[in-house]
Write a structure and sequence with these properties.
122 residues; mainly alpha
């Protein structure tokens, strides 16, 4: 189950001011960006392309933090740091963790954004 940062969720809800459609749009926009850029990141890792891995991991890290998905952001940060250090050793395991976490994110994000879920860190 993904970990959502409660403080950030509250900030998003405050910005939305009760507008559930706006919150839905934020989550959907994240998923669209993830679906577009994540396959590129996976390919960069598979091809051992350090430059592209760093760029894409950085992009997805920021996007994940913006939707309060701190665990996903932490995984992307891990990939970014590996790339910065010039090695992608162990990156495949991080990709697997992201895959698993994102499956759950797709199921629970709406409840988390709207505030109907009692989500806890895993």
């Amino acid at each position: 189950m993904p970990y959502f940062n409660d403080k950030k969720l509250e900030e998003l809800r405050a910005i939305a001011n009760g507008d559930e459609a706006f919150l839905r749009k934020i989550g959907e926009t994240y998923i669209i960006q993830f679906d577009k850029k994540y396959p590129e990141l996976v390919a960069a890792v598979e091809n051992r392309d350090i430059v592209q891995t760093e760029k894409l991991a950085h992009l997805l890290k920021g996007a994940s933090y913006s939707v309060a998905a701190d665990d996903l952001a932490d995984f992307f940060e891990s990939l970014e740091k590996r790339a910065e250090q010039g090695s992608l050793d162990g990156a495949e395991e991080t990709i697997e963790a992201i895959d698993s976490c994102m499956v759950d994110f797709r199921v629970v994000w709406f409840d988390a954004f709207i505030g109907n879920a009692n989500l806890k860190p895993f």
